[in-house]
Amino acid sequence: MSHSSFGDADFDRRARENQARRRADVKTAYDFIVCGAGAAGSVIARRLAENPGCSVLLIEAGGSDEDEVVMDPGRWPLNLGSERDWGFAAEPNPHLGGRALSMSMGKGLGGGSSVNVMVWARGHRSDWDHFAAVSGDDGWGYDAVLGIYRRIENWQGKPDPDYRGTAGPVWVQPANDPSPIAGGLLDAASALGIPTFDSPNGRMMESGGGAAYTDMLVRDGRRHSLYRAYVHPVADRPNLTILTDTLVRRILFDGTQASGVEIELAGRIRAITAGTEVIISTGAINTPKLLMLSGIGDRGELDRLGIPLVRHLPGVGRNLQDHVSFGLTWEYRAPIAPRNSGSEATLYWKSRPDLEAPDLLFCQVEFPVPSERTAACGVPEHGWTMFAGLAHPHSRGQVRLQSADPAMAPVVDANMMSDPRDMEAARACVKLCRDLGNQAAFDPFVSREAIPGDGNDLDDAFIRDAAVTYWHQCGTARMGLDDMAVVDASLAVHGVGRLRVADGSILPKVPTGNTQAPCTIVGERAADILRRQYGL
């Protein structure tokens, strides 16, 4: 393991100078090429670069993370819609009254982990056991993954050796000195018979749900992204080259074996060879786009755009899932400034008592977050929002190419709320939301329900108007053994050599909770598999 570089100015300078030299002298070949420096890509690049005999190229389309808007936890909303956001928009959705939702995705070193709300949510036991079942590999099961979580965490909360580790690269801490409004949510949950836990990870994610203060990736008051946790401490190494502001246009092939990548850097297009493997880690919207541009996808779709077929895999771009959310907002009696990330309490619960695992996901946000339509109800100047969503939506969308030009955004048909079961769960979700927010625990802080407002119905029209995304896109290059699966349990692309996918796109279903922790596990699993396969 490399020494800790957090807050070490001398190390920062050495790393910056090293990477400037590597960028000025980009080689024609590397052992491994990792496309995307998000949660999973950062992990893989670090784990491969730990072997000094291994040359690693990490390619990121966005820029540096050295910006106060990235590093200051409370300023994360300013990243949305900025140059650090891919700025995707879903197609107009008839199930949401024709609305076209923004589908933000992180662009830059750290990917989503450099622009998100910093929540560390491991996923439920049932998620991981499902992944093991559909992949045919117990290494994806909950017990195996729990061991990885313990190995990678540097847990700063109450000691819990059965569930938490303290020697890993990922600094995880409970919300520090949380807002009284976060305590109010825990008290409101208790009043409704929902159990509270010391942490939302560990025992709570083996149960039917509960409420807890949020675990977050914040260290010494600064964002501790997965790039900061994994890659930055080894950025001084001669065997690691980090290219920012560089677009991977397509994967190159020798027959059905990946041989390298075609990139665009500083306006110039060039090819770089991968001596061993190419790993795609560009996220659940860009990964299927890159696969299809490279000739991997549905034969008919590729023929339509004149893209030569490398491998017919009809599942590429299908099975798009995301957490859909509905916000209810309450007005404060007196302003309460947001603390930490502005989201310090979370809750998971069931829409129906017969379910085995929670299917609802609640994040408290310490400022008003209306949709563009519910804002018409009147947004209070000071207030808080219950951001409440479906942890296991049944609706499925698709990512398609609109052109064979790599500069063109793909078509994202999110198709949210298209399955009637989602509306049924959403009704239970917003009702529980209102029940929580109107509990006596909030009386000292809250003057009224502002959105939708006391006396206004929580009807299906409100649900369609309120729906937004958690930006937890998953599933578009899913792992499995059937004909619609894109990768196998080792994350190798079916029928293609020397090409792996490792990001949220491989998850067969969206996990229970925020996605950056599961994506970190995807990166660790991929790295373990690569190191074993090549004896690194």
UniProtKB/TrEMBL annotation:
Keyword GTP-binding included in the entry's annotation: no
Domain Glucose-methanol-choline oxidoreductase N-terminal: 106-129, 283-297
Gene3D superfamilies to which the protein is assigned, alphabetical: FAD/NAD(P)-binding domain (3.50.50.60), Glucose Oxidase, domain 3 (3.30.560.10)
GO-annotated molecular function: flavin adenine dinucleotide binding; oxidoreductase activity, acting on CH-OH group of donors
Pfam families linked to this entry: GMC_oxred_C, GMC_oxred_N
Residues that bind FAD: 116-119, 248, 471-472, 504
Positions bound to substrate: 470
Keywords of the record: FAD, Flavoprotein
Membrane-crossing residue ranges in chain numbering: none
UniProt cross-references to InterPro entries, sorted A to Z: FAD/NAD-bd_sf, GMC_OxRdtase, GMC_OxRdtase_N, GMC_OxRtase_C
Named cofactor requirement(s): FAD
Family membership noted in the UniProt record: Belongs to the GMC oxidoreductase family.
Protein name per the record: Glucose-methanol-choline oxidoreductase N-terminal domain-containing protein
Organism encoding this protein: Sphingomonas sanxanigenens DSM 19645 = NX02
